[in-house]
Amino acid sequence: MKRCLDDVYPDAHCELDFTTPLELLVAVVLSAQTTDVRVNLVTPALFKRYRTAADYAGADRPELEEYLRSTGFYRAKANSVMGLGAALVERFGGEVPGKLDDLVTLPGVGRKTANVVLGNAFDVPGITVDTHFGRLVRRWGWTVEEDPVKVEHAVGELIPRKEWTMLSHRVIFHGRRVCHAKKPACGACPLAKDCPSYGTGPTGFEEAAKLVKGVEKDHILALAAPR
């Protein structure tokens, strides 16, 4: 299944736009309870206005909240990024640390966020257990664990460490495009022959094909089409 994911999503990547570790860290915090697409609409102006950790730490709260309003829960998110900025300035010289143990000490940063930052900004392998990842690896029988940390460790034992970051991207891509929570596109899934949950969604190719999303749709359907 892992090799099949490699073939289906060779170009999988973090779908949040960023150019620095700080930008990625802020973007991941903002992505809570909203979509990466929405965050990417907000961050160009935000990143132009707030360029450093000190900028966030010293932000004018009402102004910052206006930048964040469309992401939802904008007051809480303003608190989070201001707290992040202050902690980075006070404890890490204004720089985002490149170690998991340091990242998870920052306000609002758990293992999931830390692994996204490590894998994509520092090239340190990490498994990102978001809702898609956890749902799919349980659906596939890779683990029965519900706790994200236990899921991370269980899957980490199955897959070589150097593959962890790309595996995370590919599983998340598949969850967003094919293996949906309520109605997965089983009949148009390239992983179908190896999936223990095949049949959870429609198994007919034509019906399932309508459920496939994303710019990779034609590629996915070409791999999954009946021979």
What do these coordinates show?
The chain is built from 13 helices and no strands. By secondary structure, it is mostly helical. The relative contact order is 0.12.
In short:
Keywords: 4Fe-4S, DNA damage, DNA repair, DNA-binding, Endonuclease, Glycosidase, Hydrolase, Iron, Iron-sulfur, Lyase, Metal-binding, Nuclease. Pfam families: EndIII_4Fe-2S, HHH, HhH-GPD. The chain has 227 residues and is mainly alpha-helical.
Can you give keywords for this protein?
227 residues, mainly alpha, 54% helix
Question: What's the structural blueprint in terms of helices and strands?
Answer:
Elements: H1 2-8, H2 21-30, H3 36-49, H4 53-57, H5 61-68, H6 74-92, H7 100-103, H8 111-121, H9 131-139, H10 148-156, H11 164-177, H12 205-209, H13 217-224
Average pLDDT figure: 97
For the largest beta-sheet, the strand count, sense and barrel status come to: none
N-to-C terminal Cα separation, in Å?
19 Å
Portion in beta strands:
under 5%
